[in-house]
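Problem 12. The chain below contains 249 residues. Write out its predicted structure in token notation.
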Amino acid sequence: MYDVATRMHTLRLLADGRSMSSVSKETGISRASIRAWRIRVEPLPRLYQTSSCTPLTDTVSYSYLLGLYLGDGHISQPASHRVPSLRITCDDKWPGLMNAAEDAIRRVFPANQVCRAKKVGCHDVKVYSKHLIHLFPQHGPGRKHERRIVLEGWQQTIVDAHPWEFIRGLIHSDGCRVTNWTVRNGKRYEYPRYFFTNKSDDIRKLCTDTLAKVGVQWTILARGSDPFNVSIARKESVALMDAHIGPKY
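Solution.
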């Protein structure tokens, strides 16, 4: 048995022009199953309309929520639940961020109840919805950095329309604003810097591509041999980030 996310991912590979044989070899799914899914599985999402879902109206909040999901979000569906749940894990040190996450979820899912589940040192901001798999097609088995993460065309259109909201979601989840310092000629100098850290090459590229579109210069800062850190340190770029993002709160 395969879940909807696996089926949709398989169909997206076919939609990209891949042959049925190559998709079968990559996914380990039989050609017979793939052939049947091409007929039975509902169409892929269109712009602002995700299959049978209610049209997505608040694209500003969705762009922010998408950034949060790619960082600290997770979709699951235990056997005891009829519908999947989305949870955004927020550190208790940032209550403002937690409120922002809850507000975004309520705006994207205005007809659904949103709750907070307390854990050690953090809370999960949660919502249950049968439309989650369609709204976040990046969901799939395994960890995000172990699978391919690519935005659908309708998602990219939303991010292009609201890039700062998307960047804010990424920074609020897996980023930070810090103050670095150095000593020159015996005098201490301090300067602010932004970081975004994520193990997924695909998610880091989504971040850097969007940063470039809004005029923010960035570099990759490797710690050891792992190039997981996107660094923003140039004065003009930090000023842009301060104007649109700011520190966590």
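Discussion. The chain has three domains: 1-41, 45-158, 164-244. Students who got a different answer should revisit the alignment rule from Section 12.3.
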